[in-house]
Amino acid sequence: MPVRIERDKVREMFSEIAPTYDRLNRLLSFGVDRIWRRAAIRALLDGLSFGTPARLLDLATGTGDVALGIQRRIPETPKIQVVGADIAFPMLAIARRKSRESMAFFQADALNLPFEDASFDGAIIAFGLRNLEDRREGLAEMGRILRPGGRLVVLEFGHPRGAFGLSYYYYFRYFLPFFGRLVSGHPTAYEYLPSTVYAFPDAESLSAMMDETGFGKVVSRPMTGGIVQLHIGERAAGA
Hints:
Blueprint (H helix, E strand, L loop, with lengths): L6 H22 L3 H14 L8 E6 L5 H9 L6 E7 L2 H10 L5 E4 L12 E7 L8 H11 E12 L4 H23 L4 H11 L3 H10 L2 E9 L4 E8 L4
Parallel strand pairs: 1-2, 1-4, 2-3, 4-5
Antiparallel strand pairs: 5-7, 6-7
Helix pairs in contact: 1-4, 1-6, 2-3, 6-7
């Protein structure tokens, strides 16, 4: 049964779990989420041609882990600006406490970003695309704010298969919601997580969606046995 994504409910839920969000990410992934994020950051930055000045967007930044990781990878220069955007203000408040003064964070709806056309050289969204009311519209909006040739990286949960996939399913469907509820105190947030993951398009479908919304040279690769998928695309000229 399809999961109904409602923007206001998503914002409210992530606002409520913000205080325990980082700790649960580490615990529930056994720390592997840091490896996934570092791989996504490398995919965004390696070989990327920067404009002058350059701007990079971390969309659905949450508590800012990816934005901070990008900042650590690039030279300390005012010519490169890292921007984080998220719909949940309490998440952004934590990100701002963790960040340098030079970083900018905005509360923004991913379907209606407050940025000009072609104003970013690269964008990344980690574990946030599945939370949008309209994923296709969200991808199109990311394409709008990227310059032609700008790079988009999407990091999302995948659908592992075989015996490993079955073991992962039971962990993700039963243990994770129980432990997440115990630590966060939120009654439904960590039941919502597996529900949206299993309703999310598979890697081939997401790659096709990126292609249909104006991204070329789309590639994807699984990580950790397919638990997550890394998608990389380039905004096509004239898209």
